[in-house]
Specification:
Layout lengths: L5 E8 L2 H9 L8 H10 L12 H11 L3 E11 L2 H16 L5 E7 L7 H23 L5 E4 L5 H13 L3 E4 L8 E3 L8 H6 L1 H10 L2 E2 H10 L7 E6 L2 E6 L1 H11 L26 H11 L4 E10 L8 E4 L3 H4 L1 E7 L4 E8 L4 H15 L2
Parallel strand pairs: 1-2, 1-4, 2-3, 4-5
Antiparallel strand pairs: 5-6, 7-9, 8-9, 10-13, 11-12, 12-13
Amino acid sequence: MEELIMDNIIMTVGTSLVENYIANNPKKENITKEDILGYYEKENMNDLRDRRYGAEIMALENLTEKKIFSGKRIFLIIHETENGKLAGDVLEEFILKKNIAKIVEKRIIHNLNKRNHKEFKTIGLKGLTEEIRNIVNKIGNSLNVSVCTVGGYKAEIFLVGLMAQLLHLKSYFMFDEFNEVTEISPLPMKIDYDFYLENKEFFKLIERKEKVKESEIKDILVKSPYLKNFIEFDEEDGEVYAEFSAMGEFYMKRMTSTSNLPLSTSKHSPSDKEMPGSIPVTDELENIVNSLKCSPYVEKLKVVYYNPDRNIAFSKFSLAQNYHEQMIVSLEYKCEKGVAGIDLYTVGGTEKVMKSLVAYFNENFLD
């Protein structure tokens, strides 16, 4: 099977390009973009695998040579330091001048600076995950973008590589000793949505307050210690607070994103939405059914079962197994006694639209 050539590369940028220039020009001070680009011209560095260029240029040359990258667009992820921004400026001009890519978009990640550890982890890394998520959403097709983590801080490289797995992107890196990139394909893994719903109250508490006293969530963490993986602690004025870690914030936004809701809405009135064959609605179900009928994204609905002997831990909306045929979102509703099942025939759309609908229903119709 022929591999698809990707139009978009997200590349983390380090400072090796600047450091290599300094190593070969130790007496030069107040280095500018023109100094480094002029040095490349002066030394007649025609081979893009020349190690004086640095890892980023070498990797891009290899991605192009292997026909992995089409040469359309590169997103440069740059950390907010003088050398980081200088490296980004040099790379942008060099890439365009050498026709490595037609478009270069720079993204400066604020507070991604190793000199301030607290800001690095609480602001910088969160900004990094947000930027990667926004870029991938902008492109809209995970098969047409990959990440190349050859430069940047170790924590940055690790986090972007992890996000590539979660977003189902191919990623590429290059050992210092090698001249070729190594590919890491995404595993068939999914983020556990049920875990979010089961612990929704905890996630909403952290999101709402931004900083929560450790004492407020101590009992929750004892009961479910795995939740510690989504937060980090910080001491302030003798009090220990918890807030989302970079990956915790990414997880929360991923679970609640409704950025791809349908543009179309139902033309049926709420009173016309219940389908023939729907089982009689109990008093307990009446409120949720009437609320769902008022949703602009519900065309029709049907209460398909009520089992008084079944029990579930929490109510949840999810995609029906055959959702792509009739755009169905299913609700398993936890009653005081038993479980009810409701199928929502939605206005539908692509898989991304349907996933946004699931988040919309879970966030707006369940406590």
